[in-house]
Amino acid sequence: MLQARTISISINRSWETVYEAIWRPESFPKWASGLGKASLTKVGDVWTADGPEGPITISFTDHNVFGVMDHYVDTGNGSKIYVPLRIVPNGDGAVVLLTLFRQPGMSADKFDADAAWVARDLKSLKEFVTR
Predict the structure, then answer these.
(1) Which has the closest alpha carbon to 69: 16, 25, 119, 118?
(2) 5, 7, 22, 100: which has the fewest Cβ within 10 Å?
(3) Matching CATH number, 4-130, of 3.40.50.2000, 3.40.50.1980, 3.30.530.20, 3.40.640.10
């Protein structure tokens, strides 16, 4: 098993509003800096982008009624990184949860840095949906 850390942020919007604002892959670059700040390009059933360490391919879950936005990131090294992402109701608001898995060979410092990066991206997501 991989070490896991779930990073979350609360947003004072309904979970449906948050989900509908961000579920489309095209909206990810507006808040998810790890998936490429420029744009995602659809190629068949997957999306491509320039990631922080080179080209990446991303497969996203389809739109659904459960607030699930899981995706798989292929960095080109032969393994796919699973990224569970959920929008869940919390009263009249929502909580966005992203689980980060420490990849084999990843140092503790790198894992901490990735978690901090995700936290920054979730803050950007909150700003994006509350404008």
Answers:
(1) 25
(2) 5
(3) 3.30.530.20
